[in-house]
């Protein structure tokens, strides 16, 4: 316990089951494997000789075909993310994740059966819708279920799972890309059935988010769920105190009136500032250019004259997985703002070096070595900071009454920019189009400089705060630059005797 408190800077005594708090968060993060594996598979599949000869008449994918096949997944995920609140706010976070795995599985079936481009595209759209629902609900569930001392690390594990999915996809592609039959692409795609099955079985066993139950007036069920998540008896004083604060905070939020989708964009309770922060950080995460590496990396490295592009892509994925771990360990020590700022600097410097060297010494051996080296430092900077932390921020900063809708909007903005970048990139780098090649990193490097400015002026430090205390942070701290000095002084439960009464009645009922 002392080690946990040291690593995660827990200011208070850690109560309840440490194992359960970590396990639940880690398992829900497994949804990121579905997301990452699906994203990583297509990069290698489109570079396979058998796929190019089977799915095209010319033996190569044109820029428009590459754009459509790759980006269409993001069109589905955007739709799924936008529609996610219809499930998560009505049926629950847990059931929403179960439904997302079913939708995803249907898409995988169609992609596995495909032997021509149209069915492959339809399958990617449907699978994308499942991933979109999942991407909007996983960080939401994690943020609401995890205790404050480990919440940031738990949500960060979602991004770590994405990187693991990308790595697994690269490994499988490496093992099948030389096959001269349909197994070259069907094996990598069909393996996704296993990931969906694991996610479905696990979510069938985990409890619902207690905050969802409070939002829907089901206090006894909220007490049971919170008791399971914390590994403490239902009448434990810590469980009762936490539930009182959740109820009281939600009662305060309801004083602003009924909730509609437009409340996500109203100035009340600083919601407009929060939603713009979430949408901005998700958009900028995509504009770093990270998915250029994972969508088109294999083809880009091949076009740059690098031998064994599949191995190079595998190296990038290993760096991505390994370097996410320091970010998870540091998030509760260094805080959200510091990591995001340092990460933006590291990414920007790396990308400008890749762009400059690739432009000055195209296709030379020294340029290729530099491209690989600084692509790795770029990925390392992203993996330890902007990769996980963009999801942490959007999972934390919203009031309960609009949290599901707000997180969904942020996830949708991520997928909208993902789609735009995935669709436009082939036209930017293709030899027959703009032919920017390494020069495209000048664009990404400029965007990562904007990342630094955005965090400095707009992202609040939320380390060590409960979700309810973050509401007080926004109420009392007008400027993100001074948010590190915030000390919570207010308890909603103290001003709401009704919350204590509701908890007492719930304890009696269960």
Q: So what's the CATH class?
A: Mainly Alpha
| Termini separation | 30 Å
Order of helices and strands: HHHHHHHHHHHHHHHHHHHHHHH
Percent range of helical residues: over 70%
Architecture, CATH level 2? Answer: Up-down Bundle
Strand content: under 5%
Described by strand count, sense and barrel closure, the largest sheet is: none
Shape: globular
What is the count of DSSP helices, taking H or I runs of 4+ residues? 23
Question: What's the name of the CATH homologous superfamily?
Answer: MFS general substrate transporter like domains
Rg over alpha carbons:
23 Å
CATH fold description? Growth Hormone, Chain: A
Mean pLDDT: 85
The figure for the number of domains is: 1
Q: Residue ranges: pLDDT <50 for 5 or more in a row?
A: 1-12
Structural class: mainly alpha
Topology, number of strands: 0
Domain Major facilitator superfamily (MFS) profile: 24-463
GO cellular component, one term: plasma membrane
GO biological process, one term: glucose mediated signaling pathway
Main location: membrane
């Amino acid at each position: 316990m002392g080690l946990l408190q040291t690593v995660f800077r827990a200011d208070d005594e850690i109560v309840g089951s440490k194992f359960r708090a970590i396990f639940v968060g880690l398992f829900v993060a497994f949804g990121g494997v579905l997301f990452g594996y699906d994203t990583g598979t297509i990069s290698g599949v489109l570079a396979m000789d058998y796929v190019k000869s089977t799915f095209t008449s010319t033996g190569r994918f044109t820029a428009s075909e590459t754009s459509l096949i790759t980006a269409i997944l993001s069109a589905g995920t955007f739709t799924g993310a936008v529609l996610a609140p219809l499930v998560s706010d009505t049926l629950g976070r847990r059931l929403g994740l179960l439904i997302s795995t079913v939708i995803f599985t249907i898409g995988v079936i169609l992609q596995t059966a495909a032997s021509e481009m149209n069915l492959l595209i339809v399958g990617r759209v449907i699978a994308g819708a499942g991933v979109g629902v999942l991407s909007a609900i996983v960080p939401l569930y994690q943020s609401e279920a995890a205790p404050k001392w480990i919440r940031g690390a738990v949500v960060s594990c979602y991004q770590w799972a994405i990187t693991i999915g990308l790595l697994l996809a690269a490994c499988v592609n490496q093992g099948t890309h030389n096959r001269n039959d349909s197994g070259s692409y069907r094996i990598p795609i069909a393996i996704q059935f296993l990931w969906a099955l694991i996610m479905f079985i696990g979510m069938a066993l985990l409890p619902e988010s207690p905050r969802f139950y409070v939002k829907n007036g089901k206090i006894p069920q909220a007490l049971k769920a919170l008791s399971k998540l914390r590994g403490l008896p239902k009448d434990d004083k810590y469980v009762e105190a936490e539930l009182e604060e959740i109820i009281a905070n939600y009662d305060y939020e309801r004083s602003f009136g009924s909730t509609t989708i437009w409340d996500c964009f109203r100035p009340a309770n600083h919601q407009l500032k929060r939603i713009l922060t979430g949408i901005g950080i998700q958009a900028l995460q995509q504009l770093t250019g990270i998915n250029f590496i994972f969508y088109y990396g294999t083809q880009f490295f091949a076009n740059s004259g690098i031998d064994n592009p599949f191995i190079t892509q595998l190296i990038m994925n290993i760096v991505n997985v390994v370097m996410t771990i320091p970010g998870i360990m540091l998030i509760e020590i260094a805080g959200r703002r510091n990591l995001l700022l340092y990460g933006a600097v590291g990414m920007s410097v790396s990308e400008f070096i890749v762009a400059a060297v690739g432009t000055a010494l195209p296709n030379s051996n020294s340029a290729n070595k530099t491209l690989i080296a600084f692509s790795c430092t770029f990925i390392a900077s992203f993996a330890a900071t902007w990769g996980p932390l963009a999801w942490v921020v959007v999972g934390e900063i919203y009031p309960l009454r609009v949290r599901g809708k707000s997180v969904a909007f942020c996830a949708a903005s991520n997928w909208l920019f993902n789609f735009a970048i995935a669709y436009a990139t082939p036209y930017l780098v293709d030899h027959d189009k703009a032919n920017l090649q390494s020069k495209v990193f000048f664009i990404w490097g400029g965007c990562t400089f904007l990342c630094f400015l955005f965090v400095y002026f707009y992202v609040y430090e939320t380390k060590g705060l409960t979700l309810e205390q973050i509401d007080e942070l926004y109420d009392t701290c007008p400027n993100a630059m001074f948010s590190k000095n915030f000390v919570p002084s207010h308890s909603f439960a103290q001003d709401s005797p009704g919350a204590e009464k509701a908890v007492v009645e719930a304890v009696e009922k269960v």
